[in-house]
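User: For a benchmark we're assembling, each entry needs the component sequences followed by a predicted structure for the full assembly. Here are entry 17's components. Please fill in the structure.
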Amino acid sequence: MKRKLILAAGAAMVAASPIFAQTPAGGGGGTDWSHPFAYLAMGIASGLCGLGQGKAVASASEGMARNPGAAAAIRGALILGLVLIESLALYTLVITYVAK
Amino acid sequence: MPEHEVELWTTVLFNKFLAAPLTSFLTAIGHPPADPAHPWENWITMEILVVVIIMVLFAFLRSRLSVDKPGKLQLTFEAIYKFVSGQASESIDHHASKYVPFFGTLFIFILFMNLIGVIPGFEAPTMSPAVPLAFAIAVFLYYHWMGLREQGVGKYLAHFAGPMWQLAIIMIPIEIISHFARPLSLTIRLFANMFAGERVTITFLSLTYLVLPAVFMGLHVFVAFLQAFIFMLLAMIYVGTATAHEH
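Assistant: Structure for entry 17:
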């Protein structure tokens, strides 16, 4: 089953090869690789940020369920943690704009 | 970074009447503007407008203060003050009330600046990278100054060496880099959140009308409140760690 999945993923990537035919956005010589890589970087950053925030929310929800009296403090720590994780994805967004 | 430079009505007004003084001031300090007829930019005129709005609001509040019969405005600002000073006393060990004016100003100023971007025809000054940078530098200087004042120069600098003197040789570069990373992260966090919020709303406005862009605009308002609160909270944490005494 695993080999079939790997073959299927490889076939999907080969099927996407028309992407090499697109005209470069920069005008004169050479292809401009910064655009697709910027999109890929943003996708990776958002995905990992989603994973991290999911873990944070999961632990906070479990803590609040176990100890409803401490819910306010846990909620405060949750908000702070979410914002700090979010800012990591936003650094990548800023780089995306700088690369353009 | 933003490629649009549509001049808002305030910027047009400022450029019409006050272009010459600002151009001569900027040239005198060595940074002449690119276009001498239009030296004012959107973010500085919006920031001045927010300052005027806040001052008028607080002057109005001051005239209505009453101990016996507080009005709704007074109750609102008492709630805001209680929130800020409660948060400060959680983060700072003692004498938290000395620092509350700075944190309250940070919170209200950044909140008003973030929210004025929601109104059409106005642009949030925090959308330009210069404004959050100025706040981050102010917070950086403030917490170092408070730390130096509270603990004295020698003891404060000895903090950078870490818990044991044997570790100082690796702790000092790490501490210096992390201290300089703080204003950088404060700036980028606030700027990117506001900028991305506007971009997301515009993107969805170009795709569909009515409901979906309004949802994203609501998210932007929530993020505006949250980012102002987080900026203030991080400033409190930095002041707290700078002035902490080990007992």
